[in-house]
Amino acid sequence: MGFIVLPALIPDIASVYDVYFTAFKDSPILSALFPMGVDSGEFRDAHTAHTRSYWEKSSTQYTLKCVDSETGGIVGMALWDVYVTPSDWKKGEVDWLSGKEKERAEKLLFPLWDMREKLWDGKRYVYCHVIATHPQYQRRGIGSLLTQAGIQIAQQSQLPIYLESTKSGQPLYAKLGFKLLKETIVHEKGALGEGSEEERVPLMVWEPGSLSTGLEFVGEGTEIGEVGGKFDKMKLQDNSQEVINARKDSTQEDDGLLSN
């Protein structure tokens, strides 16, 4: 018995997002996006309804589930946008929040959205929003399975994949053939929560075969944090509930990956 990756269906929405909300519980990004919490039945019902409405309208977004073949339970999820024709995606608005809560979320999201639009507007590509594994199933290869499923889509369509990694997730992505862009994003001090330090976001791209995106990558043998000639050693995180909810080092597989 093992795990299998399948397309998520409408009846799966609540279970898929049970995994997401559990995997990223207490993470600074989740608390910024949903400052009122995600545990109430009212919130979850509204979120499920909104997600279903979006699924019925979107022509680019695909949600995958990872199922435990012994129990039938959903233990992992991944969210991908596939642009087989040139993307017309544009930066959105944080219109579900207001005041200081909105400002905090914008500090996190806008740099990510601005970079995505800068690099990929009008281009064909695959974008990975998020990969998440239920904490009880981490370190069992589920994150890798979900990433490989996205790679298979990209191989079949001959499209590059773009994602914003966590520092702890970077070694797994590199193992699967992703390369680190010289372009980078820096979250300013306090953006990830009160007292948080400045933090770089590794931007990674997977290219199929001989296809070249024309983007500039950090050269082989370059330190993880050396981008654009500036050396900034990136420490691997050691907090199982921070952003990725899994402590890993460069030799371990990261099953709680987060892309935004």
From TrEMBL:
UniProt-listed Pfam families: Acetyltransf_1
Organism: Zopfia rhizophila CBS 207.26
One Gene Ontology term of the molecular function aspect: acyltransferase activity, transferring groups other than amino-acyl groups
Residue ranges of domain N-acetyltransferase in the record: 124-202
Gene3D superfamilies registered for this protein in UniProt: 3.40.630.30
Cited PROSITE patterns: GNAT
Top-level lineage group: Eukaryota
InterPro entries: Acyl_CoA_acyltransferase, GNAT_dom, Trichothecene_AcTrans
The protein's name: N-acetyltransferase domain-containing protein
